[in-house]
Amino acid sequence: MGREPPHLYSAFLNLQGRDVLLVGGGGVAFRKARGLDQAGCRITVVARRFLPSFKDWLTEQKIRWDERAYRKGEAGDYFLVVSATDDPEVNEAVAGDAARTGRLVNVVDKPELCNFYVPSVVRRRALQIAISTDGKCPALARKMRMDIEGIVCEQYGPLLETLASIRENLKAGIPSPPLRKAILERILSSKAVQRFLSGEPRLLERMMKGWERARKCTDRSGPKDPSSRSPG
Predict the structure, then answer these.
(1) Do residues 132 and 117 touch, judged by C-beta distance below 8 A?
(2) Domain final position from 93, 118, 143
(3) For the chain, which residues score pLDDT lower than 50?
(4) 123, 20, 158, 143: which is closest to 81 by C-alpha?
(5) In sequence order, which residues have a C-beta less than 8 Å from that of residue 128 and are 6 or more positions away?
(6) Are strands 64-67 and 80-83 parallel, antiparallel or unpaired?
(7) Which pLDDT belongs to residue 227?
């Protein structure tokens, strides 16, 4: 049997503090700008024309924007580039400049001009579930996102934050990685997690406070392996 054809390599980008260029001033570009802003990058937006609401939002967010045409070669000055215009010539120019300088580039609805795609995402605070069809059928990815949104409730976001706190306390108080893993797996399969997802967080919160107390005791007396029974 022959090898499967190449497929996309799944990854999440850390854009904190990175320079990003967004080309476009319409509704699609506005949506892209909101997502990029949440990623903490330094955005520059250029377009011949902007929606008034987009201008207002950019000004309010203190994001750099310039009402002008894209300048040849400027994509090479940025870590990542997104083109969201309805002008094929502009999109091709942006993609070409980015490709020649080895930049990450996404052209909305033009997979042949992209070297990365933006997936459809279910987001619950820090928890993200990304769905991609390798650019073959974005509509299917959107449908799957809506299906998953009905399964993964909003409580998964707070659950992740609570489990992260428990995990940090385990790491500080228990030197053995296998033991930490076993305890966390017991917690994940416990009724406390199911109750948390049902809107009853008190049991898991008591467990978290128990590990915090255990961590403080460990800080005073030095690290040691407690029994695998979860406090609280």
Answers:
(1) yes
(2) 118
(3) 223-232
(4) 20
(5) 12, 121, 122
(6) unpaired
(7) 42
